[in-house]
Amino acid sequence: MWGGRFEDEMSETTWAFTSDPADRRLLAHDITGSIAHVRMLGNTGIIDPVDAETLVRGLEKLLDEEFVFDSDDEDVHAAVERRLYEVVGNVAGKLHTGRSRNDQVALDLRLYLRDAADERGSQLRDWAGMLAGLAEETADLAIPSYTHLQQAQVTSLGNHLLAYAWMALRDIGRFSDCRRRLDQSPLGAGASAGSSLPLDRDGVAAMLGMAGPVPNTLDAVGSRDFVAEYVFCCAQAMVHLSRMAEEIVLWASQEFAWITPGDTVSTGSSALPQKRNPDVAELVRGRASTVIGDVAAILSLQKALPLSYNRDLQEDKRLVFHADDTLSRSLTAMTELIRGSAFNLPPPSPATAALPMAERLVSRGVPFREAHHAVGRLVRRLEAEGKSLDAASYGDLESIDARFTAEDLSVLARHHVPPIDEQLAKLRELLG
Question: Which residues pair with 184 in a beta bridge?
Answer without folding.
Answer: 212
